[in-house]
Amino acid sequence: MLRKAVGLLLAASFVTAFRLEPGVQHAFSTHVGSSGHTGGATPDVVGQPNLATRLEMTSDPNATLFCARKGDKSTAGYAHFTNANGEEDKHMFWWWFHARKDPENAPVVLIFGGGPGSSGMFMPFSGAGPCRVTAGEDGAGAAVPAEYSWTDEVNVLAIGHPVGVGHSYGTSSSLRNSSERAAWDVDDFLQAFWVKYPSLTKGLFMIQSASYGGTYIPNIVNVIHSRNLAAAEISTSARVVKSPDAASPVPSLHDAEMSIERFSLQTCDVAVGAIYAAGLTGRNPYHATQACNIGEVYDCFPEMGRLNDVMHSDKIRSYIKVPDEVHFVYTSEDTFHRFYTNGDMAQPAYQLLTPAINAGLRVLVYNGNTDGVCSWRSNVSWMRLLKTTHQAAFRTAPDIAWPGVGWLRQMMPVTSSSEDAFREILVKWLRNETFVDTDADSL
Q: Where is the signal peptide (predicted)?
């Protein structure tokens, strides 16, 4: 079932006052965009915004990615952040897969992983980018051209977020420990990216993630929105004021209605027992119809191992030219631990979307209907609770059925491919077109 929200518009205004050298200097050295959720003690620069960002391109502009189609272009590099002490201590990896048609005017889709601690390279190498990871003849991971790449329509911009995952790296004392603080780095990267590629500010901008991205995205949206408002009050601001059109899947592990007054230890014990039991069912928690051994990660998620193989290959490393001492990390346990011990998972992050939605942000929430971790029921629950100017309309909007077994696979009459259907969802969303024939009004 699809709960339809009405009246949500795109907010994508921008200004074009740029300062290029020696890097993008940031006006917000104070905590603009703070949600008030900071957790425990703040060690040194971890809790301080960056002073500047230097964007570097590491890939060869004349090289072609081995697994892409002829003519496909991509650009990779690093955003180097200068901390409050004047030191470059964090280095965020970015990889821009150019749109195949009119990239300067095509939408930009920012992609990163969940976790906290998962690499942002999974989606670009699962069909969003020009290449798709698969099993090679020897069983190891291999990369082949993607049949339904998003780059047919959009620019895909993938980042290693937060710094410390994937190819991103930094000094241990500098790495962020909350979604809010990590959001400062994303906004600072985007400012440097828009300055380097100003033509891309003309098109739509969308943020996409999965799983724990449902906590990352509201924090990023809040920081961007708050800093945009603050920049409007500064006549000399050189900020590129560009707002996102966010697609935000939100994890179901957070119960939106739970408060300290309603907490029940007995109920919690029962719930925890059920969760542990679910982990012993021999089913993939993200795909309940799939049998696998959850104790063996690559049994349930073979794509993780294949992506590791591809990212560590000489072909990829020679193309993106990351430092020799930097090794790809699909899942960073250190990042997970930092966020977990700081209480990041306890925040009702969806509430941070309210100001931006009221200002015109459109939000698309999507799910697999057999996903037990990010369930569609949980997402509908927090969406109904979200206090915006559209809440009443959303709560009374009708549910619209998509015929067939799979929401994505069967919604399009022309194909049974979930990859193709998911790309169609993205394109229709960006064009503000209807999803199914019975959905007479645009979303």
A: 1-17
Q: For residue 95, list its beta bridge partners.
A: 76, 158
94's CB contacts (< 8 A; 6+ apart) are 76, 77, 78, 79, 157, 158, 159, 160, 189, 193
Number of structural domains in the chain: 2
213-232 helix and 179-196 helix, angle to the nearest 10 degrees: 60
Q: State which amino acid sits at residue 195.
A: V
Residue 405 φ/ψ, nearest 5 degrees:
-80, -50
The count of C-alpha atoms lying within 13 angstroms of the C-alpha of 415, restricted to the half-sphere facing its C-beta, is 12
Q: Are residues 317 and 361 in the same domain?
A: yes
- How confident is the chain (443 residues) per 10-residue block, as mean pLDDT? 26 26 53 48 70 93 89 94 90 96 92 89 89 86 88 93 94 90 94 93 87 89 88 61 47 36 53 57 70 69 84 92 90 90 86 88 76 75 87 81 44 44 67 54 36
Tokens 């990829």 label which residue?
A: 316
Torsion angles phi and psi, residue 409, rounded to 5: -65, -40
In the block, tokens 């895909």 appear at 156
For residues 114 and 209, the answer to whether their CB atoms sit within 8 Å is: yes
310 shares a domain with 440: no
Residues 306 and 441 in one domain: no
Give me the amino acid identity at 388.
T
